[in-house]
Amino acid sequence: MTTTSPGLAVADTSFPDGFPAGTVEPHYVVTEALGTDPASIFAGISAEDRAFWERARAFVQDEVLPVIDGYWERGEYPLHLLERLGQQDLLRDGIPVDGFPPMSSMAAGLVNMEISRGDGSVATMIAVQGGLALRSIAECGSAAQKEQWLPAVASGTEYAAFALTEPTHGSDSVALESTATRTGGGFLLNGEKKWIGNGSVGGVTVVWARGEDGQVHGYLVPQDSPGYTAAKIEGKLALRAIWQAHIRLENVFVPDANVLPGARTFKDTARVLLATRLGVAWSAVGHATACYETAVQYARQRRQFGRPLAASQIVQERLARMLSELATMQLMVVQMTRLDEAGTLTPEQASLAKYTCTRIARGIASNARDLLGGNGILLANRVARHLADIEAIHTYEGTETMQALIIGRGITGTSAFA
Question: Which of 40, 131, 290, 324 is the least crowded, having the fewest Cβ atoms under 10 Å away?
């Protein structure tokens, strides 16, 4: 018997006489892209958008899937994949940057979906670097700041982070307590931030802090600034191949030139989060697609009771249920993205997309993991990694409860939170 990866056996063709060859488990091929589109919802995608999608798929198949299990298991950050995302222009999340070709919101969604079909940590690189940090500079930065940072962050030659969440302020991020105090030629930042992707790898961090006017403002903070310390958060059971940091800011000096002039209140922060919330919904579709396609491929190859699992009525029913749920998610994100491109997407609609898609993705992942039996917990069989990573996206960019309250505010006209 030979092995290709830990826990995955491949049948040897040179069995001794009398060896029970049927006891040797075959090598299951479960990572092929099946192009799942049951409602033909992607049939009308433009050639330009499809080109981004196809480039993302090739990147996943050729560069992510062959290596990601090892990085995930070891808890190591494959920064070279972030750089490759930039080199292939897959990092911008639809944000226009001088010198780069147009990238629509639909193209950004398709890229998020496809990269998530490969791995959630790699998709989070896009969400952090492009969706949050790059978007903050693009929407709130000065002309000089945009010229300095946008091309470098978009191309992956500079790392970028987005520091909003605090150890004591998660869902109530509007109540953040990090402070920015005026001093000669700039501001002094003090406070702590938590769950900050890319916050400890070098580069620049977009820090959100409360000024002396009581409003929330944005500041560009190089991570080598005196007083900026960041520790990698250990012990994560999800998104293990990207590092989140716990940051401490102790009298970190930020010159006036590094203050984002367009970030004047928390509403400017919320504008950035609105756009990325839809991206998380697209990511959920990608994770669910990976789990469904893995289940289909496994059911075709795995034999029990003298026949493939795919020949079982209950297995077919479960696959049909997953496909139905996946189609619902696809329809949701495509329609919401059309609204986004038309400039009419509301916060309630973005929350509805994330609320619906992350919830359904959890169910599809659980169903697929169960269908694979004991093999469902092996990294080599893909589903367990996605099952764990969905738990992270279910929480970040606003928990399910917060999304429900945003939706509920739209339904009732009354806010149940601040």
Answer: 40
For residue range 111-151, what is the model confidence (pLDDT) as tens digits? 999 999 999 999 999 999 999 999 999 999 999 999 999 99
As a whole number of angstroms, the distance between CA 44 and CA 162 comes to: 34
Q: Which residue has the higher pLDDT, 12 or 392?
A: 392
Taking each helix axis as running N to C, give the angle between helix 313-342 and helix 347-371, from 0 to 180 degrees, rounded to the nearest 10.
Answer: 160
Rg for the chain (alpha carbons), in Å?
23
Q: 3-state class of 109 per DSSP? A: helix
| Residue 144 identity (one-letter amino acid) | A
Residue that is written with structure tokens 């940051």 in the block = 247
DSSP, residue by residue, 234-281: P--SSSTTS-EEEEEEEEEEEEGGGB-TT--SHHHHHHHHHHHHHHHH
Residue 354, classified by CB atoms within 10 Å of its CB into exposed (0-12), middle (13-18) or buried (19+), is buried
Q: How far is C-alpha 138 from the geometric centre of its chain's CA atoms? A: 20
Alpha-carbon distance values, 142 to 158, 205, 274, 312 (Å): 18, 16, 21, 61
Q: What is the percentage of the chain residues whose pLDDT exceeds 90?
A: 85
Neighbours of 197 (CB within 10 A): 26
- Reference 55, options 96, 92, 99; nearest CA is 92
**CB 410, CB 352: distance < 8 Å:** no
8 A C-beta contact, residue 111 and residue 163: no
- What pTM, to 2 d.p., does this model score? 0.93
3-state secondary structure of 338: helix
Structure tokens at 140: 């709130």
